[in-house]
Design brief:
Blueprint: E1 2-4, E2 7-9, E3 12-17, H1 21-34, E4 38-41, E5 47-53, E6 63-72, E7 75-83, H2 95-195
Antiparallel strand pairs: 1-2, 3-7, 4-5, 5-6, 6-7
Helix pairs in contact: 1-2
């Protein structure tokens, strides 16, 4: 028993894990549509009203459903009150109607759970897509760096060969210089001998 807009009444309470009030209200809209009813809700009140629902497993006539949404840790608590038109469903006085309504609520809870898991799956798939993109980017970056390393290695080999050639060229030049110095000395000697 709990207080609602029509006083203290018997209801059926259910906890919907991983759902918020907004998602639960969307679920209640779909529930109302399924049973050809009209849903009314106000931002000022946590109570949602589903008017003239045609639920044959509960009653041959239309029923009014009042649902109070309460945020709880990791979800939403929903308390359903079912008005048969003057009397609210209780397990003691209206066993068959209670069983019918209980089945409707369990079906609603399962639908909400599937929606919540579906949303969670979308989020996780999006995360996977992002991680895959990041991996591709890392792989591309590695390929680029390996190419740069290969180019650098080729440059090193080329420069090492140029250094070896430079050493040979320097040795040749050194020989040419020595030879040239000998020529100069020979010419100087020649000049000296001419002076005498």
């Amino acid at each position: 028993r709990q207080y609602m807009s029509k006083g203290e009444q018997n209801g059926i309470e259910i906890i919907l894990n991983s759902t918020n009030e907004s998602a639960t209200k969307d679920g209640l809209k779909k529930l109302a549509k399924k049973y050809k009813a009209k849903m009314e809700s106000s931002k000022k009140s946590p109570e949602v009203f589903i008017d003239n629902a045609q639920i044959s497993s509960v009653s041959a006539n239309t029923v009014d459903i009042y649902a109070i949404l309460t945020p709880v840790a990791n979800g939403t608590k929903v308390t359903f009150f079912t008005d048969l038109g003057g009397a609210f469903v209780t397990s003691a006085a209206y066993g068959t109607q209670y069983a019918g309504m209980d089945a409707v609520i369990k079906d609603f809870a399962q639908t909400q759970a599937l929606t919540a898991v579906g949303n969670e799956l979308k989020v996780e798939e999006k995360t996977l897509k992002t991680l895959s993109k990041e991996l591709k980017s890392l792989q591309k970056d590695k390929t680029k760096k390996l190419k740069a390393i290969d180019e650098a290695k080729n440059s090193i080999i080329k420069y090492e060969q140029e250094v070896l050639k430079n050493d040979t060229d320097q040795a040749t030049k050194q020989q040419q210089i020595s030879l040239q110095q000998q020529i100069i000395e020979t010419v100087k000697s020649k000049r000296s001998s001419l002076k005498n």
